[in-house]
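Reviewer comment 2.1 asked that we show a complete input and output for one of the modelled complexes. We chose the pantoate case, as it is the one discussed in the main text.
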Amino acid sequence: MGSPRVLRRAVELRTECDAARARGLRVGFVPTMGALHRGHLDLVRSAGSRASFVVASIFVNPTQFGPNEDLARYPRDLEGDIAKLSSVGTDVVFAPEASEIYPESGDTRVRVSSLADPLCGARRPGHFEGVATVVTKLFGIVGPCMSVFGRKDYQQLLVIRRLVRDLFLPVEVVGHPIVREPDGLAMSSRNAYLSADERARALAIVRGLQEASVQFAMGERDARRLELAARALLETAALSIDYVEVRDAETLALVTRANERALLAVACRVGTTRLIDNVVLGEEPGPLSR
Ligand code: PAF
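Response of the prediction step:
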């Protein structure tokens, strides 16, 4: 596969995408923050199976990080990322500077309300506003027909679906299944922060989700009891829990019973690293059953 064109300026990317459309190509888009792993490459492959011209962006978006979060130490490897994207058939890599996306004169933010409020939204104020703003800007530059997002960031996927619907953006948003390591840990760029001991303890997350999935499969529908089943595993590994919550898989409203499709979402800290994971009960098998 040929090397992708690497562009830094929004105007260049727009010109490139316009030219692709003029040639009759269907533009697919995968936004990323780089430090790419197999999960990201699966998103690009998925875009390539649905579109004939694939754009991936690499941009560590400052507005989605809180003041005490890991913006400065977020892993960056542009050359390595370009090589990986090249191996999965990417036509263009967009790697802008922050000043390109957020010029000083910029004054617009995109905020999605109710879906962005619970779970990570409650613990990371401003996070989803940063995500919604950058994704809207990137969609505006690329003008994709379709865009692929991983389901590990399940709440993010719902927020983006909602903003696309509310702003009448002509983009099909595709949710891609969580990609896991052989032992079940969900792939994340932040896994690179984990020491060997933390990496081993982080497996409690997937074990907790698995335990709740098994109980759901055996007929347990009480949301609090399902949360407790997952929580017990996390506590055994001494993880610091941000939340373990069962919510409606579409609206993210709290539910007392996990009926047809319920999201069980987990966020916790392993050492200083914050990890998230989830399973949709009633829709997916447990994370260790794949
Ligand atoms: O999921 C991510 O990596 C980011 O939140 C995204 C969608 C690239 C926006 O910065």
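The CA atoms of residues 102 and 134 lie 9 Å apart. We note this here for comparison with the apo prediction described in Section 3.2.
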